Amino acid sequence: xxxxxxxxxxxxxxxxxxxxxxxxxxxxxxxxxxxxxxxxxxxxxxxxxxxxxxxxxxxxxxxxxxxxxxxxxxxxxxxxxxxxxxxxxxxxxxxxxxxxxxxxxxxxxxxxxxxxxxxxxxxxxxxxxxxxxxxxxxxxxxxxxxxxxxxxxxxxxxxxxxxxxxxxxxxxxxxxxxxxxxxxxxxxx
Length: 189
Description:
With 189 residues, this protein is α+β, with helices and mostly antiparallel strands. The chain has five helices and eight strands, in the order E-E-H-H-E-E-E-H-H-H-E-E-E. The strands form two sheets. Strands 6-5-4-3-8-7 form a six-stranded mixed sheet. A two-stranded antiparallel ribbon has the order 1-2. Helix 4 runs antiparallel to helix 5 (129-151).
């Protein structure tokens, strides 16, 4: 394997042994190239390996409040930290706990205890056994559709934070924390 750094593009061009044609290279799209930690490039002050940043806790420096966790780093002219906002994770956990109970309100698309009782009474009032079976099957399908809708989670809220020293003044790899000083409106989007 050989390669070189492309100045201005913040990318490496790599030549892999046995990959000599474009179609061979295209077959490797989305493949991960892993490097042992002892073989990683040496860093200059203020530089970080992406793998060290993923999973770090992001703190709002002024309030010393946890904003979330770094889930990815993107290069878009300059690096951007993708942060999964903690508040969303807490809301999702609360929603899961509520959905697991029987008495969930209609707003969450699940059946309440009253709806189940009403459905049972409706089925019991159907005169013929074959019709009762069809009514039960219909109610099961409706319940499954509602349960499926309530089980679909919303994607967690994420923010892209410019990874520049003015906004990210503290990166402490050893303690696993990043402190940010976002400009007004950045985290309110």
